[in-house]
Amino acid sequence: MPQPQLKVAFPPSSSPTPFETFHSSVYPPITTNGPSKPGATSLVPHPFIISARVNTQAPPDVTDCSDRNYSKYYVVVVQYTARFNAETVKNFLYALNNGKISKKKFNMRLAPEETSAKLTGYEHNGVTCIGMKTDIPVILDEAITKLNPDFFWLGGGEIDLKWGIRTSEFINYVKPFIVNCSGS
């Protein structure tokens, strides 16, 4: 059986968006086991995970992403090896809303695959925050802003597609909330 080919996107020097796609068979595939598991491979030292999260405690009238500060859904970007900390996101959202919304109304959980695909337009292991079907607010882990070099890799919309981007360009383009939301 042929090995899947990894497609990689690199940030160009002159492009209206901060990335472009580059297809290559030179790079080894990134396994779903991730770089921290024995025998797993990683293309670069800064791979990241993007996941759709649902606020399970939002009241019935909060059903979509129309209010960026108090959305039913968020997309979270954290380093592959980091652990997402929902408590820090809850505290951030509480402060963002000036304490007007009870902390009990924030409970961030992984959105079901079906919901994630419907909202983002991307299947499991292919979720990215560029070109989503829905304008979902993005939360970027603060640790990503401290990377050296100022560059990271994330999903490109398909399982075997990854794209790389300068962190500063990602922030300027996506306009995420920056939150210390991992254990890294």
From TrEMBL:
It holds the Pfam family tRNA_edit. GO terms for molecular function: aminoacyl-tRNA deacylase activity. Residues 71-158 form the YbaK/aminoacyl-tRNA synthetase-associated domain. CDD domains: YbaK_like (cd04332). InterPro entries: YbaK/aa-tRNA-synt-asso_dom_sf, YbaK/aa-tRNA-synth-assoc-dom. Signal peptide: none annotated. PANTHER family: CYTOPLASMIC PROTEIN, YBAK_AMINOACYL-TRNA SYNTHETASE-ASSOCIATED DOMAIN-CONTAINING PROTEIN. This is Uncharacterized protein LOC105164309 isoform X2. It comes from Sesamum indicum. The gene is LOC105164309.
